[in-house]
Amino acid sequence: MIRTQIQLTDDQARGVKRLAAERQVSMAEVIRESIDRTLAAPQWAASREERVRQAIAAAGRFRSGGGDGSAHHDRYLAEAYRR
């Protein structure tokens, strides 16, 4: 393991300390796990250019069948959450 030093804001330090206490682990463990999750996230797998290309390729490929989705999206979302 490599020892390193970081600076946290007051809020970040409080949050990390709280999580560490709740989980009964060290602050270092909370930070290492956070880094692991960030590095494993899909957005790190593809370059920004690739993600933009994928987003552009997906645009317009899906249809809901309704023509009023943009006008009534809040209602549709509320209905979906009720299910």
Can you describe what's shown?
The chain has 83 residues and is an all-alpha fold. Helices cover 59% and strands 0% of the residues. It is built from 4 helices and no strands. The protein has helices at residues 10-23, 27-40, 48-58, 73-82. α1 crosses α2 (27-40). The longest helix has 14 residues, at 10-23. The chain is elongated, with a radius of gyration of 21 Å. The model has no long low-confidence stretch (mean pLDDT 88).
Short synopsis of the structure:
By secondary structure, the chain is an all-alpha fold. Helices cover 59% and strands 0% of the residues.
The total of beta strands comes to: 0
**Helix-strand topology string:** HHHH
Helix content: 55-70%
**Unreliable residue stretches:** none
Main beta sheet: strand number and arrangement?
A: none
- What is the first-to-last residue Cα distance? 47 Å
What integer is the average pLDDT? 88
Output the radius of gyration: 21 Å
Structural class: mainly alpha
Notable characteristics:
83 residues, elongated
Give the SSE layout:
Layout: H1 10-23, H2 27-40, H3 48-58, H4 73-82
Helix pairs in contact: 1-2
